[in-house]
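Observation: inputs received (chain + IPE).
Thought: call the complex predictor directly.
Action: predict_structure
Action Input:
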Amino acid sequence: MSNAKLPVHVGIIMDGNGRWAKKRGLPRKLGHREGGKVFRKIVEACIDLDLQYVTFYALSTENTSRPKEEVEALVKLFDEYLDDIREMSDKNTRLRFIGGLEFFPKTTCKKMQDAETATASNTGMTCCLALNYGGRSEIIRAVSQIISEHATGISPTWELSEENFANYLYTRGMPNVDLVIRTGGERRISNFLLWQAAYAEYYFTDVLWPDFGKENLATALGDYAERNRRFGGL
Ligand code: IPE
Ligand code: IPE
Ligand code: MG
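Observation:
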């Protein structure tokens, strides 16, 4: 595929871990563990494909109300992943974390900050992880930040525009999303990158996340390359 037809920013909703486990009579947390392995494989595949930005939806704000045992297992998995971060630096990849990160234990937050700092000057792909992320809460947070910054009046040189607003989102500095891939069979966005994916193409597959492979990713990108993006024009 020519690079011209490659999306610059891909969002991936990694759904279906629980059902994958259920089908095998396993506890849900083993589905998440398998999903974590696939996440690592797909990050590699994205790097090999020369993608520039990939945002993985790993935990939504809504997911934090799942049973404590499941949420704890997920937090533990993220924490373990953060211990292997050197791998990313070796691949010249930048790591970024978006979402309500204060939800995580202080030690985990520190690992996230350290990983971002350690990989900040890498020049390859940006691998962004959305954790305790919600599109609506991101927008509310941006609005309240703008209000508090301008509590004493808006400076005459500042104007509220789409571009300026985007600078208050977690994804500050990242381009809009071109393609959202969702595994697991549901056809919805579940509060993912509402602002950033306003004009994205959507690709839905019934494949459960732990069964998702490089070939499935290639199929999604091939499908995207065939789309005619008009952005409301002719
Ligand atoms: C996606 O898999 C991972 C997270 C939401 C954390 P699910 O846990 O939603 O799996 P299903 O949808 O129940 O199969
Ligand atoms: C979306 O999946 C969130 C993540 C994959 C992290 P969910 O399984 O939480 O979404 P719903 O409940 O089907 O909308
Ligand atoms: Mg799900």
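Thought: report the result.
Final Answer: The two ends are 25 Å apart (CA to CA). The pocket of IPE (ligand 2) is lined by residues 13-15, 57-60, 62-63, 186, 188, 190 (CB under 6 Å).
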